[in-house]
Every structure is written in C-alpha cells, then in structure tokens.
Amino acid sequence: MTAPPAIILSQPQMGENVGAAARAMKNFGLSELRLIAPKFEWPSDRAQMLASGAGDILAATTLYPDAAAGLAGFNLILATTARGRDVLRDILTPEEAARRLRAAAAAGQKTAILFGGERAGLDNDEISLCDALITIPTAPLPQVKATELKAGSLNLGQAVLLLGYEWLKSADTTPPSRTRPTPAMPATREELIGLFEHLEKELDAGGFFFPAIKREAMVRNLRAMILRSGLTDQQARTIRGMIVALVRNKYRGKA
Known about the structure:
elongated, Alpha/beta knot, alpha/beta
C-alpha cells in the first residue's frame, strides 16, 4: 500500500481544530499527525471531544519545537497557503497536490502536508522549507476593509478534510455513476405473457390499436419493446398493478 502523507500543523491555536483535523484524517486513511509548537496545552481534552473516533491518531501525535524539527525525515513536503507570498514556488490545486504526493509515495518517498496556524498561516521561513504550495480554490469574498484578510481562508479542520479527500480520491476506482444491484430474478416467460395479455386487453378496450389492420404489427412491436427492457419479476408485477390502478380510476371517474 502507498504510504499516506503525514499531516503537520504548525502553531495551531485551538485544540478543537486539532481534534477536527484528526477526525478528517481518520475518514480518509491518514494516520500520522505532527504538531509544531502548539499554542495550547497538550494533550488536549478539547481535541479529544472533536476527534470523534480518531483518538488513536491523537494518542500517537508527536510534538516539535520548530519547523526544522517537525519537517525532518520527509522527502516531499507541500505547504498549504491562501496566498503565494513572495517565495517562488509552484502553486498546486488540491487535486494536483494529491497526484504528486501519491507518485512520490509510490517511489518510496516519505511525504507530508504542512498547515499553518489559524490566525496567520505559515510564515515565509516555513514555506521556504517546502517543495511547493497548495491553494484551495474558494469563492471571492465581498468587499472588506483594507486591514482585513482579503484572500479566502478555511477552518483548519476543513482544510485537512479537503486535502485528505483529494488524497483518497486520487486512488479511488469507484465508477462515477452506478446502480445498486437488485437481487430480483428476471421475469419468467409466463409472467411476461401475462403482462402482454393484460396490457393488450386494456389497450384494445381503450382503442389504442388503430387502425385495426395494423394491430398485429403494433402488438409485436410493443412486446419487443418490453422484452428489450429486461424486466425483473418484481417489475413485471408492478406494471400489471399500475395497469389495474389506471383502469380502476378510469371507471371510477365515469361513475
């Protein structure tokens, strides 16, 4: 199996967000969590409250005093940021980032995704230690004051969730559309003949087969159409029930 990237949170402000990040990791097959100089006491009860089943990830979380220590041992590190800053780096979409991470992991490299703190994100020194940047596309914000952040930003847990989803999706072979299989058996010939006769009887009563000289050809075409649909036994019974209901309501309306 391809080793998933580690999630590294630099200077997270709130235990709740770390717990939400761990829960997101659990959903998408990520397991290694590192914290760089968290701004709260660790272990955190608030992180446990938000982890919801990801307590094993929190229990194995490791702490580091700075970025140099926290990023040690990795071959490919991608940093998330809402802005390109002044450092020249490739800026990747989450989808492309997942592709590069998976390719690197398949080649035996150890990979990681670095996330900044909730208030200020990553600084330029931290970004300078990374191979490329990831920017998550967001809708433009309405006009704000010059002192406020103009770039779209996400909650830390949401950002981890989106990157985790892209990582898992990059190897997912689920077809884009599928129909849930049913255990029903194909309709037997007796059930189909009963459907043909029932339908043709009511169509005769309603004057559908007109002109009469074309009745036989119309019946053959109708039967061929029904046969091509590959009805199950349940579907054949359902159609007969529909015919009964339509006829009953027709006569009820005339009463």
